[in-house]
Amino acid sequence: MTALTLSTAGAATLRADALVVGVAKSGKTLVVAPGAEAVDKAFDGRLAAVLETLGASGSEGEAIKLPAPAGLKAPVVLAVGLGTAPEDGESYGAETLRRAAGTAARTLTGSKKAAFALPITSAEDTAAVAEGALLGAYAYTAYQESTKDAKKPLAEVALLGAKPRDKAYKAAAERAQAVAEEMNRARDLINMPPNDLYPESFAAAVTAAGKEHGLKVQVLDEKALEKGGYGGILGVGKGAVRGPRLVRIAYTHPKAEKTLALVGKGITYDSGGISLKPAGHNETMKCDMSGAAAVFAAVVAASRIGLAVNVTGWLALAENMPSGSATRPGDVLRMYSGKTVEVLNTDAEGRLVLADALTKASEEHPDAIVDVATLTGAMVLALGDRTFGIMANDDDYRTAIHEIAEEVGEQSWPMPLPADLRKSMDSPTADMANMGVRMGGGLVAGLFLQEFVGEGITWAHLDIAGPAFHEGAPYGYTPKGGTGSSVRTLVKLAELTAAGEL
Length: 502
Hints:
Radius of gyration: 24 Å
Number of strands: 20
C-alpha cells in the first residue's frame, strides 16, 4: 500500500528517488507549472528549454525523465504534461492534476519515494494530486510471482506545497487516501480470478472488512435465500456448484438524518448460463461483479471518512453457469417481490439478482436507492467504454448524480426511461419477461429494475458496463483491468446526502 505524506520541505532539499514537476502549453511555448520554481532554478531557468529539446509538448499523459542537476537532492526529475496552461488567476482543474499525478505514479513503478511538486494552491488541489498518485500507483501482482518485485508500485508519495498543519489540507489528504484505498480494494476484487473470487469468498471478504471497520454485515446463504423466497438470485445461481449469497453491509452514524441504500450486481463469473456467451465475450467476465465491488468500497470509504449519513450496501452475489440444474430460457421465476418473471435469455441475469436486492433494500424505506451494475452491452454501444449511463425515477436526482460524477472525474451521461419500451417486456406466461426490444436494450434493463423499487423511494441506476474494466493501455490513474468505476461518485453522493444537499 502506497504511503502518503504532506511535506513542508522544499523541492530542492527533499530526498527522494524522483521529483515530479508539471509542464504545460501556453500558446506555442512550453512553460513550467507553479510548484517547480526551485527545480527550474536548478536548471538555471532552462528546464522548459531542455524539455523542448527532448521533444516535450506539455500534452496530458506525457511523461519525460531527465537527470537532475546539481542543487537537487533527488537524482531524477520527471516532467508530466498538464495540457493547456490556465488563464492568469485561474488554477489547473482537479481532473488535470489527478491524471498527471497518476501518470507520474505509474511511470515511477518500482521507486521507493517520489516528491510531487505539482501546482497545489488549495485543499482541493491536495486531494486531487493525492488521489491521482495513489490510484496511479496501483498494481495487481498477486498471481505474478516472477515479476512481482519489478512491478511493485511506488512506495511513498510526498506532496510538496500542501500544508500538513492546516486542517483543511490534512482532511483533504485523509479523505483522498480513504477513497483511493477503497477504490483499489474494489480493483483487487475485480481483478481476482473467478476460481478464487466466488459468492462465498466475496462474502467472507466483506465480513472481514466489516469486523475491521466496525460495520454490521449479514450474509444470506442458499438456505436463507430459499427460505426467504429470493427467486431471482437463486434462479441465476442454481446452475453453479458454488451457491449465491445476498450480503448486507451497513454503516450507521449517530447524527445521521438520512439513509442511502446502495445495491450492487455481483456476478462473480458470467458465462451467460444456458444462453452461453460466445468466445471473445467471456474472457473478462470475472468483472461482472464490479457493481458489488463499488458498493462495498463506497460503504467502507463512507465509514472511514465518518460521514453523518447511514449507508447500507446490498451485494447480490452469484455465478451464472450452464449445467443440468441451470435456469433455462422459458423458465418462470417467482421473485422476492412476488412478481413472476419469464426468463427469455439467461444472459440477462444481472437484472434478476438486482431485482431481489432492490426489493429487499426498499423494505427498509431508505431516502434513496442507487444501484450499480455492469448491466448491458447496449450501454457500451451507446456511450463507449469510458462513460457510464445514469437512469432514475427522478430527473433532478439523475442530474445531481451526473454533476457529482463530473465533479469527481468520472465520465457519465444521463439516460431516459421511455415508458413506451415497457410493453416490450410483457409476457404471455408471467407478469413480465426479463427481455424486451433489442434497440435501447440498456433503457429496457433500467425499466425492468424500476419495477422492483419501493413506491415513493427515489432511485437511480448506474450502468457501468463500459468503464468498469479497462482492456486497453493504462492512462492517467486508470490501470489495465478493474478500474473501481463509480466509487468516487457514490462516496460524494453520500457526502452531499449527509450535508443535506440531496
